[in-house]
Amino acid sequence: MPTAREIMTPHAECVSAEDSVLVAAEKMARMDVGSLPICGSDDRLKGMLTDRDIVVKVLAAGKDPAQCRAGELAQGEAVTIGADDDAREILRTMAGHRVRRLPVIDGHRLVGIVALAEVAKSVPDAKVGDLLDALTTD
Predict the structure, then answer these.
(1) Along the 138 residues of the chain, how does pLDDT read in single tens digits?
(2) Domain of residue 125, CATH code
(3) Which domain holds residue 124?
(4) CA proximity to 44, closest of 107, 93, 113, 101
Protein backbone atom coordinates (compact mmCIF):
# COMPACT_ATOMS: atom_id res chain seq x y z
CA MET A 1 0.00 0.00 0.00
CA PRO A 2 1.27 3.49 -0.78
CA THR A 3 2.12 5.88 2.03
CA ALA A 4 0.63 9.30 2.71
CA ARG A 5 3.87 10.87 1.47
CA GLU A 6 3.46 9.08 -1.87
CA ILE A 7 -0.13 10.16 -2.52
CA MET A 8 -0.41 13.55 -0.79
CA THR A 9 -0.42 16.97 -2.37
CA PRO A 10 2.88 18.39 -1.11
CA HIS A 11 3.67 21.95 -0.02
CA ALA A 12 0.37 22.64 1.72
CA GLU A 13 -0.15 26.30 2.45
CA CYS A 14 -1.27 27.35 5.89
CA VAL A 15 -3.25 30.26 7.13
CA SER A 16 -1.69 31.79 10.23
CA ALA A 17 -3.64 31.45 13.45
CA GLU A 18 -3.28 35.24 13.73
CA ASP A 19 -4.69 35.96 10.26
CA SER A 20 -8.24 37.22 10.06
CA VAL A 21 -10.93 34.91 8.75
CA LEU A 22 -11.34 37.42 5.90
CA VAL A 23 -7.70 36.92 4.89
CA ALA A 24 -8.19 33.15 5.11
CA ALA A 25 -11.33 33.32 2.93
CA GLU A 26 -9.50 35.41 0.35
CA LYS A 27 -6.66 32.87 0.31
CA MET A 28 -9.16 30.00 -0.11
CA ALA A 29 -10.77 31.82 -3.03
CA ARG A 30 -7.41 32.58 -4.66
CA MET A 31 -6.29 28.94 -4.29
CA ASP A 32 -9.75 27.55 -5.17
CA VAL A 33 -9.87 25.31 -2.07
CA GLY A 34 -12.49 24.71 0.60
CA SER A 35 -10.15 24.28 3.56
CA LEU A 36 -6.77 25.38 4.85
CA PRO A 37 -4.57 24.19 7.68
CA ILE A 38 -4.20 26.68 10.53
CA CYS A 39 -0.59 27.00 11.68
CA GLY A 40 0.75 28.80 14.71
CA SER A 41 3.83 31.00 14.90
CA ASP A 42 5.75 27.87 15.95
CA ASP A 43 4.87 26.21 12.58
CA ARG A 44 2.78 23.62 14.39
CA LEU A 45 -0.61 22.67 13.05
CA LYS A 46 -3.42 24.13 15.17
CA GLY A 47 -6.38 22.85 13.17
CA MET A 48 -8.21 23.09 9.88
CA LEU A 49 -10.37 25.96 8.69
CA THR A 50 -13.16 25.15 6.25
CA ASP A 51 -15.42 27.31 4.16
CA ARG A 52 -18.28 25.85 6.21
CA ASP A 53 -16.61 27.04 9.44
CA ILE A 54 -16.50 30.55 8.02
CA VAL A 55 -20.17 30.51 7.06
CA VAL A 56 -21.55 28.85 10.19
CA LYS A 57 -19.22 30.04 12.96
CA VAL A 58 -18.50 33.54 11.70
CA LEU A 59 -21.03 34.90 9.20
CA ALA A 60 -24.16 33.18 10.54
CA ALA A 61 -23.09 34.04 14.10
CA GLY A 62 -22.90 37.74 13.16
CA LYS A 63 -19.15 38.02 13.70
CA ASP A 64 -16.96 40.32 11.63
CA PRO A 65 -14.63 38.16 9.49
CA ALA A 66 -12.08 40.99 9.43
CA GLN A 67 -11.88 40.93 13.24
CA CYS A 68 -12.20 37.18 13.93
CA ARG A 69 -8.87 35.29 13.89
CA ALA A 70 -8.47 31.95 12.13
CA GLY A 71 -6.97 30.48 15.30
CA GLU A 72 -10.22 31.13 17.16
CA LEU A 73 -11.87 28.50 14.94
CA ALA A 74 -9.26 25.79 15.58
CA GLN A 75 -11.01 23.44 17.97
CA GLY A 76 -9.31 20.62 19.81
CA GLU A 77 -6.40 18.70 18.41
CA ALA A 78 -6.16 18.49 14.63
CA VAL A 79 -6.73 15.09 13.06
CA THR A 80 -3.58 14.24 11.10
CA ILE A 81 -1.79 11.37 9.43
CA GLY A 82 1.92 10.61 9.54
CA ALA A 83 3.85 10.96 6.28
CA ASP A 84 4.91 7.31 6.41
CA ASP A 85 1.49 5.88 7.36
CA ASP A 86 0.01 3.68 4.67
CA ALA A 87 -3.27 4.04 2.79
CA ARG A 88 -5.03 1.59 5.16
CA GLU A 89 -4.29 3.94 8.07
CA ILE A 90 -5.44 6.92 6.02
CA LEU A 91 -8.75 5.14 5.31
CA ARG A 92 -9.19 4.22 8.99
CA THR A 93 -8.45 7.77 10.13
CA MET A 94 -10.73 9.40 7.57
CA ALA A 95 -13.57 7.01 8.38
CA GLY A 96 -13.09 7.21 12.13
CA HIS A 97 -13.11 11.00 12.18
CA ARG A 98 -15.46 11.45 9.21
CA VAL A 99 -13.12 13.76 7.31
CA ARG A 100 -12.29 13.98 3.62
CA ARG A 101 -8.92 15.69 3.97
CA LEU A 102 -6.03 15.02 6.31
CA PRO A 103 -2.99 17.15 6.98
CA VAL A 104 0.17 15.05 6.57
CA ILE A 105 2.74 15.53 9.31
CA ASP A 106 6.41 14.60 9.40
CA GLY A 107 7.47 15.03 13.02
CA HIS A 108 5.51 18.17 13.89
CA ARG A 109 5.94 19.80 10.46
CA LEU A 110 3.10 19.97 7.94
CA VAL A 111 4.35 18.47 4.67
CA GLY A 112 1.14 18.06 2.67
CA ILE A 113 -2.55 17.24 2.51
CA VAL A 114 -4.09 13.96 1.48
CA ALA A 115 -7.62 14.14 0.12
CA LEU A 116 -10.23 11.47 -0.41
CA ALA A 117 -9.82 11.76 -4.19
CA GLU A 118 -6.09 10.99 -3.93
CA VAL A 119 -6.76 7.97 -1.73
CA ALA A 120 -9.45 6.75 -4.13
CA LYS A 121 -6.90 6.63 -6.95
CA SER A 122 -4.47 4.60 -4.84
CA VAL A 123 -6.52 1.84 -3.19
CA PRO A 124 -8.99 -0.84 -4.35
CA ASP A 125 -12.52 0.40 -5.11
CA ALA A 126 -14.14 -1.65 -2.32
CA LYS A 127 -12.08 0.07 0.38
CA VAL A 128 -13.01 3.50 -1.01
CA GLY A 129 -16.67 2.42 -1.01
CA ASP A 130 -16.39 1.50 2.66
CA LEU A 131 -14.91 4.93 3.41
CA LEU A 132 -17.66 6.72 1.52
CA ASP A 133 -20.24 4.74 3.49
CA ALA A 134 -18.58 5.79 6.74
CA LEU A 135 -18.48 9.45 5.66
CA THR A 136 -22.09 9.61 4.54
CA THR A 137 -23.84 7.47 7.15
CA ASP A 138 -25.33 9.32 10.11
Answers:
(1) 789 999 999 988 899 999 999 999 999 999 999 899 999 888 788 899 999 999 999 999 999 999 999 999 987 778 999 999 998 899 889 888 988 889 999 988 899 999 888 888 877 655 555 655 665 665
(2) 3.10.580.10
(3) 4-136
(4) 107
